[in-house]
Amino acid sequence: MTVEHHHLSNLHSSEPHSAAAHSTAAHSTDHALNHVIIEFYEKLSSWEHAIVRDKGFSLSQVHTIELLGVHGAMRMKELADKIGVTTGTLTVQIDKMVEAQWVVRRPHETDRRSILVELTEKGQALFLEHDALHLQLTTDLTAKMSSEERIVLLNLLSRMNNEF
Q: Tell me, what's the pLDDT at 14?
């Protein structure tokens, strides 16, 4: 049993605890989680910046490539929502990506008002290269975890992602 697991199991043991003590422990855990999540985000962001720095594309462009690589062709509005930008901002970015031959725009098959954005062969190659780097990082970061721990981590991160 890890120290953290032992500490958490003590929170739920049958020993009498006051509500204030439990609340303080939960508050402390919330703060610790907050700091660990922020630290992980900062480290991942620094890693990502270092990876794309010399590749000739921006971080927002690589995120667009990742989304299209994972989900396939998407409507501009849907892509903008997933990235968290306006369609106007995305249009400027997609214009540059079309010029670089990473993506193409095409009319939607059934909705004449919608334009789909999809990766070109060049964009797909960038996605596969970048995705392989992410997979290697994930493998490195989880190398010392058991299969069970990796499954728990997957489930917890998936639940957190669903909260967004």
A: 44
The residue assigned the tokens 């794309």 is: 52
Residues 6+ apart with CB under 8 A from 80: 86, 87, 89, 90
Question: Using one digit for the tens of pLDDT, what is the confidence trace for 32-60?
Answer: 999 999 999 999 989 988 888 777 788 88
The model's pTM is: 0.71
CA 130, CA 137: separation in Å to the nearest integer?
A: 11
Q: How far apart are CA 32 and CA 24, in angstroms?
A: 12
Q: Is 126 left (phi over 0), alpha (psi -120 to 50) or beta?
A: alpha
What three-state secondary structure class fits 105? strand
Record the tokens describing residue 84, joined without a space.
């968290």
Pairing of strands 103-107, 74-75: unpaired
